[in-house]
């Protein structure tokens, strides 16, 4: 196993030679000094080798097939980066006068125009920094709307049992009570259960369509009508928009609020802690209740009396907006539609090929993603979804999402996205088929994976209960 940077070096080695001090030295008072950092004594060459080695350990969509279900880890075209790194964008300060940033304001306005056309909404706010933040902001907008219409009795948010975990968390953070809606045998919302639960306490329903089983909610018009008839609003989790972009619009399905993941659907960098962008779109009756300030007609409007206020400093992660706008403008209307079609085609092809050996959670044609269940293999062979996922790492494929949605036992959730060619999908089928063969012939070998990584199979229970999150001298 290679060494950490803290374990390298020789006392006295330096990686940089600083010029002599040109001003009088100043020493802080002892009580103001921080503890001396335990930095390694390494040369420039050792530093370069360390970071180069770190970069080679990274598994991202630029390195390997990355079928992380529900996260839409699609390739990020480098032209997006070129646009976002133009000096006219990178050299702008967020406190610059309006007249000096008209180009930036035009980017926001143009992206808003396109996103309203794609989703069927009437306006967007770009403040939210990521998807979960978008959920929270959207729910706070709903809460603000209900409060100003004296609907304080509406405290319940419905969430399907297959939903992303952020949905109920966001609803609770926004001050609502969460009630779970069961799925039916086909993997969709149980409409009759929803109808029985909707009443005068209903604030909203949170739903993604296609849902997290990768299935289109065929009763969506009835679902949104039930909530509206009860006096509530309907919230669209945009995590799975990649399946319907340019084909169907949430606004036409009856949704009142949406959040989008620009760092998923619109091909801007995803993962590594950010930055992300989770703008929220609303129908016309909710526009006054959005976060402020609002950007309209090249002006920044701070005076928004019914707004819920700021959800983030300034106006959002602007560089991500530039990347998303570049992506949308290059593809255009037909290109976005084609993107969704190929995403669904790739997922259905992969689902069909894998169904020869793997059990699908729901026997229905998927949209952009699908869920397999290793329940049978776990019972018969003693191998789990986790074992298969670890085996994929040794064979150069990033694992899919594991153990989600929670209603599927031993789940693997696969989303190939539209950016992968058929050859990559065929290789994934070969690898996953080989892993099942290994499970049958030598399950212990599979349970030992991964064996090619700097850190092998860890004790997951101990890692969760007693995590070591930073290096400390003596822990070598």
CATH T-level fold name of the largest domain: Aspartate Aminotransferase, domain 2
Count of domain modules:
3
**How helix-rich are the residues, as a percent range?**
25-40%
Write out the CATH superfamily name of the largest domain.
Type I PLP-dependent aspartate aminotransferase-like (Major domain)
The biggest beta sheet reads: 7 strands, mixed
Please state the oligomeric state of the protein chains shown. single chain
* pLDDT < 50 runs, ≥5 residues: none
| Straight-line N-to-C gap | 12 Å
CATH architecture of the largest domain: 3-Layer(aba) Sandwich
SS elements, strand count: 13
So what's the overall shape?
globular
Q: What is the radius of gyration computed over CA atoms, rounded to a whole number of angstroms?
A: 25 Å
The CATH class name of the largest domain reads: Alpha Beta
Average pLDDT:
93
Structural class: alpha/beta
Strands of the biggest beta sheet: in what spatial order?
1-7-6-5-4-2-3
Number of helices: 15
Sheet-strand content, in percent, reads 5-15%
